[in-house]
Design brief:
The structure holds two protein chains of two kinds. Chain A is of the alpha+beta class. Chain A has two domains: 199 residues, no CATH class; 172 residues, no CATH class. In chain A, 50% of the residues lie in helices and 18% in strands. In chain A, strands 3-4-8-5-7-6 form a six-stranded mixed β-barrel. Chain A has a two-stranded antiparallel sheet with strand order 2-9. A two-stranded antiparallel sheet of chain A has the order 12-13. In chain A, a hairpin with a 6-residue loop joins strand 3 and strand 4. The two termini of chain A are 29 Å apart. Chain B is of the alpha/beta class. Helix content of chain B is 34%, strand content 30%. Chain B contains seven helices and ten strands.
Chain lengths: 390, 233
Amino acid sequence: MLALKLAFRNLMGARLRTWLNVFVLSLAFVLVIWFKGVLNGWDRQARRETINWQIGGGQYWQENYDPYDPFTIEDSHALLTDSIQKEIGQGHLTPMLISQATIYPQGRIQNVKLQGVDPNQKILALPSEYLNTTDGGIPAMIGERTARNSKLSIGDFVTIRWRDANGTFDADEIRIVHIFKTDVGTMDMGVVWIPLKKHQEMMRLSNSATILTTAQEAGFRGPFTGWDFKDHAYLLKEIEAMIETKSIGGIVMFLFLMSLAMLAIFDTQVLSIFRRQKEIGTQIALGMTRPQVVTLFTIEGAMHSVFAAILAAIYGAPLLALQAKVGWKMPAGTDDFGLTISETIYPAYSVGLVLGTTLLVMITTTIVSYLPARRIAKMNPTDAIRGKIQ
Amino acid sequence: MHNSAIITIQNLVKDYPIGGGSFRALSDISLQIGQGEFIGLVGPSGSGKTTLLNIIGALDNPTAGHTEVLGHTIENLSHRQAARLRNSYLGFIFQTYNLLPVYNVYENVEFPLLLLKKSQNERRELTLRALEWVGLTDKIKSRPAQLSGGECQRVAIARAMVKQPQVVLADEPTANLDAANSHHILQTMAKLNTELKTTFIFATHDDKVIGYLRRKVSLADGHVIKDENIVQS
């Protein structure tokens, strides 16, 4: 209690020196929390967007389908049995057929993944209703990235060439009826969306599909022969890996910020112990024990972090809340990185994040304050009283 | 010899290590100091007076010999016991005042009472009384940097006296003061010595201080060369 009282008095007495340290440390608090909040927000948005746009409540993959092996696509289709049809009818599943094709925008050759989707599906955020048209050509929909790469606009006709299930090459014209925007790159880059029925007809794969996506609230609908169910844990594996990589980057950034703040505290403590030798000697002469003085200096250092937490709460909380509301606009072109990244990232702060960071900073500050303070125990009080450098 | 001795020093030796050898700062010192004395350890620089004062103040340990202060054997005290002795029974006044720079006058004087865990009311009462003794009640909010040298030393006296210690150890208290301020603080200390029966031990070579002493112990090269009582006119 005495050490707390004296430490408080010393810090208040040191005025500007104290508040400079407190401000630097509070910046570390706010920046660490903000940075971790941005990563959290990004993670949450990436998961949510991937679920909304791509994987719903999980997917059934035709047993041969391997998205990483294009050679499997040719054989990755199966008939939609009655039980599957029933689930589709009840809105629990939506089928997709996947094949390879080539388009020729402005005479150039471009390989694409042709995906057939039910224009009336409601399970995914994909605006497939635009495919409900019969006005000339095969109605097709592409994402903004593909449109940019292939220089296609709404209303453009483009030749498409594919090989059907019997191995016969065929060609036709697709008409771009809609260009959509999504943060999920795999739904966009190099993908051309057409109506499922038309796709089945083109491939001569009537009533067949490659993937069955379940509604978010439906999830696993029981086993279907020839289909493997992939849950969120499996389908979000890549995002998890990406988040893990980002977390490592986050830790590096966190360590960097913390090091800066701790350096300020460490420096202040070392400087204090040299500058305040006379004071330390006087305190010992007046009856303080050396452990009491070490405790006093350690608490002084640790108290910086308490004040910093309060200051950070005063100016940081509104700033962080505002940032969480208006978000952080990503620079143009970041959607081409191949990562699921929104135009605007909304940082997400949890109680755990704030308390965890606060606790961590306080513990680290206390340790950093204690290390130089140990030197006091080795001081000769008679030399300290005279202010003789030891 | 003093029958009511509160400090007894017998054959005290203090060596400091220097390079491979050692330097003898005090050699075979024997001394007794009684309650209420106003005594000076007098001698030139390097005579050992500050070293002796530090040993009496339990800030340093003797190399050999026996030192007893208020019933505590200095050479046997642990750090904690030495701190308790200083805290409860001894007051210190330094040449350079050694006030805590971030505290104001009131807080500086109050400091020893905080260590003694006195209540807030008691602290206030004792602190204001000590400041009255030295005539600084109008400066309680001032910081040391805003005070003159004489005022700083008066704060240091108040800090040493606030807990009414049995012994006050003053190391060259007037060295940084002009004649007028020196006499002022010496008069203050002499008055407190008379009124409170506090023992004052000075380490000094200042004639102004010597003029106030009632006993003068002269030191040279670590030896007591003369111990005389002075009758004040």
